[in-house]
Each structure stands twice: as C-alpha cells, then as structure tokens.
Specification:
40 residues, mainly alpha, single chain
Amino acid sequence: MQRVLGKKTLENEILREAVKIAHEKKLISRLPSLPEDDTP
C-alpha cells in the first residue's frame, strides 16, 4: 500500500509541474479544475 501511495504522490507532483509549465507557456488559459466526485 505504501508503494502505491508513493507512486500516486509522484504522479500527482509530475502532473502539477506539467500544468504549471503549460500555464507559463500559455498552452492552457487557466488551471483546470479537478472533476467533482460523482459517486453516490
């Protein structure tokens, strides 16, 4: 479980950095919002 959590944390950090770079390069006009949880 710790390995999975570590992997997800790393993925999250990579995605946040990618969004930051894309925003700085004007590849995206604004930071995307996270999808809302649709679970009942």
